[in-house]
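ARCHIVE CARD
Drawer: 12
Card no.: 0347
Subject: one protein chain, sequence and derived structure
Cross-reference: see card 0346
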Amino acid sequence: MPSIAGYVEKAEKEGKTISQIILESQAQEQEKPEQELFDKMKQTLDIMRESAIEGENPELRSTSGLTGGAAAKVMKRAQAGESLCGSFFGKAVARALSVSECNACMGRIVAAPTAGSCGILPAALLTVMEEKKLPEEKAVMALFTAAGFGIVIASNATVSGAQGGCQAEVGSASAMAAAAITELAGGTPAMCASACAIALKNVLGLVCDPVAGLVEVPCVKRNAMGVVNALAAAEMALSGVSSAIPADEVILAMKRIGNTMPASLRETAEGGLADTPTGRKITQQVFGKES
């Protein structure tokens, strides 16, 4: 089984970044040139950027009517310099919402690692790249770091909300994003691992309770929370703050927690917010019935 510790050890031993290690291993495994894989990953980043732009359309609305327009409101406030935490923070939140709203409105997105958590990684990468004026090539490479860490999580635990709750979707995406932007900002392999661990620790136990069974409420807004969590984790890691619990152990803890969750809190729309009076009312409005 792949491990975060294994990636870090190999990167430090060879004096390389996590992304270089992942790219090399994937090229070897798939028997393809590294440039070909890099070009494909660049296309992935392009799609992420397109979905972020599409989701900012203030007229965008999902078929259910539950989603659309939120990203435009947050971006407008950020661009006007009114955001409580500055335009960088506001834009990151807006982009997380925009990609998620694009998904809810049947637009093209990159599942990173799932459709329900698709806004976190693009929002983090695109905003850091823009804010720090970093070359696109570095953002593409950071995606390999995210992918590598995602492989570890999926192999050793799960990224499925139906299996592990929202901690496995938004949590995994947030951890992947934290590691990616840590490397993007010049962090070491060990810092990337700490960022991943801190981000995932922060959302352990997060349930998956989609209202009306749709990937809209509360999923879209949890993507905004996920990017903020990723930024906080990366900031700590880049400052030299390490995780007391190693990333691989956090991942296994997440798996165990997911296994103990009742079915009602794992994407069945039978518990949590889906089972509130308003949640049931929304279900009835959308489908003409409560369940």
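Annotation on reverse: The two ends are 40 Å apart (CA to CA). The chain has 13 helices and no strands.
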